[in-house]
Write a structure and sequence with these properties.
The chain has about 300 residues and is mainly alpha-helical. Helix content is about 60%, strand content about 10%. It has 10 helices and 9 strands. The chain has helices spanning about 65-100, 110-135, 140-170, 180-190, 195-210, 215-220, 230-250, 255-270, 275-280, 285-295, and strands spanning about 1-5, 10-15, 15-20, 20, 25-30, 40-45, 55, 100, 105. It has a 3-stranded antiparallel sheet with strand order 1-2-7. It has a two-stranded antiparallel sheet with strand order 3-4. A hairpin with a 4-residue loop joins strand 1 (about 1-5) and strand 2 (about 10-15).
């Protein structure tokens, strides 16, 4: 059993036992969580009844650097968790709606149920393609750019889609007999750990639009060189107005999450321009986001 402990300037690997002897690592309590109960979370105390020995990982004064190296990769895995839980919620809801009958026919044939399933499926496909691109891309600068987008947006959509899919179950979704409530609870943590979604938005706001701004902006627009869809082209035009607004109001963080959502929709549209459902029911959100950002 080993743990990585980051003390800002140093990182250490600490084992529970050394040479079959206790290293004085004590678990003081197990947390009782809202969800994700299959992954125990506990509080550890080091040096409880003796000296705890740790082993330096990497070089001195590089602990913070190593922590972010680990976290940046973990953020993409968080995005994958969001997409995975959305996919599971969709599969559960689709199966239920196909078998549950009302008024002599499966409820999947009702317009409202079918709309929510189609909307969920469309977003899930967009997230899959956006994540696949990120994991296959070799340009580190591009990956760094889209990581906060995917971490925040995919985890948020994972929770939203799980909630929409629970709605399809009706009252049964609120009963523990069906697993959809567990999916909803489990999906919520992904918006919090490995850097909250608000922190991702601030990081995106400062690093990509205020620091090294021209290079980052050119990098973003380079992703859309082969795009011809008129709505996406209009979205790119709006994004330039938003970027100018950011540069003129560098201390206004109140709309940072909406800015992140706007560029997330724009990024995912790169892969979904031929999906009319996505463009109509998801990408159209950029117009309401524009109003909230620019006022």
């Amino acid at each position: 059993l080993g743990h990585l402990v980051f003390r800002m300037l140093f990182s250490f690997r600490i084992s529970k036992f050394i040479n079959n002897q206790s290293n004085h690592v004590y678990c003081s309590k197990i947390e009782h969580k809202m969800g994700l109960k299959y992954s125990p979370t506990c509080e550890l105390i080091f040096g409880h009844q003796g000296i705890t020995q740790g082993f330096l990982v990497g070089k001195e004064f590089e602990g913070l650097k190593q922590m972010f190296l680990m976290m940046n990769e973990a953020r993409l895995y968080c995005a994958t968790q969001g997409e995975g839980q959305a996919s599971l919620a969709y599969e559960l809801a689709h199966t239920y709606a196909s078998s549950r009958k009302q008024f002599g026919k499966p409820i999947i044939e009702f317009d409202d149920v079918r709309y929510h399933l189609n909307k969920s499926h469309s977003m899930i496909q967009a997230l899959k393609k956006g994540l696949l691109f990120a994991f296959q891309e070799n340009n580190k600068n591009i990956v760094d750019f889209i990581t906060p987008l995917l971490k925040a947006f995919a985890t948020e959509q994972g929770f939203i889609i799980s909630s929409d899919c629970l709605q399809i179950f009706g009252g049964y979704g609120y009963i523990e007999e069906y697993p959809i409530s567990k999916v909803l609870r489990d999906s919520r943590i992904a918006m919090i750990y490995e850097g909250t979604n608000g922190i991702q938005a601030h990081d995106f706001f400062f690093f990509f639009f205020l620091k090294n701004s021209p290079q980052n902006i050119d990098l973003f627009f380079s992703l859309f060189q082969e795009i011809s869809h008129p709505s996406i082209i209009e979205g790119l035009s709006i994004s330039k107005t938003i970027i100018k607004h950011i540069q003129e109001n560098p201390n206004n963080l109140s709309s940072s999450l909406d800015i992140l959502r706007f560029f997330s929709y724009l990024y995912l549209a790169k892969f979904m321009e031929k999906d009319s459902f996505f463009m109509r029911y998801h990408f159209s959100e950029i117009y309401s986001l524009k109003l909230r950002i620019l006022g």
